[in-house]
Amino acid sequence: MPIPWSAASTRIPAVEHRAITIQQLRDLRLFLQRLCKVGLLKRPDGSPIHWFHINMYDICNLVLKPVISFVEEQRGSRGKFSWVELVARDRQMPYLLFSHSWSGRFRDFMAAVDDLARGKSLTMTVPVWICIFANNQFGQDFGTGLRDSPFYKAVMAAEEGTLLMVDRDASSLQRIWCGFELHLTINLGKPLVVYTSAGQVGVSVTSGRLVEAVEDFDVTQMEASQDSDRRQIINFLCGGETTEKKGLTTDQDGNFQLVNGWQKLLSDVTTAPAAPRRQDGKLEYVQEAELFELHSAKFQKLNVTVRDKVLSAANVGEGVKQTAGIKIPRIEDRGVTLGEMRAFVKKVKSWCSEEGHSWETLTINEISKTYIPTLTAGKDTCLAEMWSSGPRKPQIVLDETWHSPMSELAAALEWFAEASRLQDNAVLFFTPLCIDVCNQKRDNPDWARSIRNLLQNGEGLLSVLPQTEEQIARSNRLEQLHLCFQEGKQIYLGCSHGVLACTSPFQDVIWEFGHFHAQLAQTLLQSSWSQARCANDSVRERVHQLISQSRGGYDGFEARLMRVAGGPVLRDAALRGGSEAVKVIYSIAGRQGFLINSAVLKGSLGETAVHIAAASGNLLALRALLDCRADPNAEDHIRETPMHYAAMTGMLGSIQLLLKYGAEPTAESAFAEDALFVAQQNPARFLGTHTKKATALLQAWAIASEDAKKNLPYHGGASSEELIANNTNDGDDAISVSSISTRLQL
């Protein structure tokens, strides 16, 4: 793909004219995806940043600023620009302003951009104003007051108003700059639309974390990176520009005194212990506490206005009046909707806060024994019956571990809902809500038959895995997975950071959504299922007989698990490298019936273990994969092969090994680029990546004879020491096609 910046920078003096087009955003997204999938973007501790986790802070510090500095230095300039000035050829007037939080996932942000473009039929040239790309991150002049700030000017300039982007954690509703932008948008009478990664509120989204967060929206609890910015905005909301400098240090001319040219200082830092604490737990300042009390009506009006605008768009009112105590005799008819599950989770969180429990550690079992009975006691019913006006057949059965935290199941469910694009009315089966926990004998005359009917009549199973083998290998989970395999039902595995599709892909034709923990998958595959545990001996024996008498028995079941859940383990081994990783690869790929080139094993960007081993230069792992007949020409989501990955990271040894195993170096990606083009372009050079040796090898290979190619060193029988020694991308010392041809006997 073309690198996402233009041949020359363009100075655009007016910051409000530095909007970024949808195409420029998509170019940046693809660039970031490439950097993430080859493992070049890392956190300070050295851990790679996954595409599903990268946020605006990462992008600014690891990409935008380094790229701008590198490109300008290459051009013989020391100029510092905004990203838009680097990628645009002229000023770009904003169609819309995006109000968002930097801590939200960029992947979610771009999902909203795509949905906006589809829903509004926008062309790729439409520009939207986004602060991180419009402001000069090396030191933007924010003016002498908020009316001179980029945010004020951009709200004024955006012809179609403001789009509020609410991320998974609703952090944009906790940032004071977003509150400022919402205040301006509403006061100016401009349009306000709200999006999540699932789409526009009121069109695709009517419940979930967004609605929960908006219901609790309170501008007085919003924060900023700098307390001085928070104070200035609160002053402005109370009295406009005439009062915005109150409590901030100014010089004799009334201008802000700045540290490092941009940071304002508080002149009064007295705190008010009696006032409500801030969202971050800090004591509130006296000045802010007094303003909140004095101007409470103004803040309340803003809070109510924002809530009304968003919730009315989401069609959220008082809710549907539900008749309590509807008796539904058959357990398999007691579904609960996704919207009801989300509402239940919100209530449990509130209860945790009131009772002093930790939401992060509170188990499903504890909730079932303590909280749910407070809702159903004396009613001889379950919550599903209380919430329903009649039978509802579940589409998906949630397989939970009662001793696992409810927070993990809730997180996995959100990942699954997003990956599957579930609507609020999707019907689920969650045992604690669908049986009478106060009188389980009433609901358990034939639990095995009920579960079988649930799975046979539904679409499949979401199994949320706990952390330990003891909790994973349970008889109930074994039976449910077995039934889904036998009936051809959908199987999804979930954890707090992502979900795996095991039998058919998610809607975007991907098999992993988020980042499924490799260690969890490893524990699942290494579990001794023949020793599956159960508190009820008769259930354990019944399930044992069921599996033992099935086709393939326990070996067959474990082989099926390996085939569908081996991807994260293989990719992790490819990333780690070393002799232990090789053992893992052979133990999985050598399993009878295992298809190492199956699409189900691919990562969230279509990458295989071979892609990862090639990019990271782990030659022992790469050779093990290739020896197991992994495809050296496998294609990812943009048809890049392992050779493209190795060329991008400059891994000379990976290129040699891939060539020896039949990789096609002239294979082109979706952008008509082969590995040689990638190496010559070196898109990651700003990170210190060297690709001249890789370029020379690929050029030499292109002109070499067939006999010379057969004599390529470091063939399949090379020693481990030789492979490790050949793993290098160090240095871009002068090297020519002829010299590398001679050295490699081409």
TrEMBL record:
It holds the Pfam family Ank_2. Keywords: ANK repeat, Repeat. InterPro entries: Ank_Repeat/CDKN_Inhibitor, Ankyrin_rpt, Ankyrin_rpt-contain_sf. Coiled coil: none annotated. ANK repeats lie at residues 605-637, 638-670. It comes from the Eukaryota. This is Uncharacterized protein.
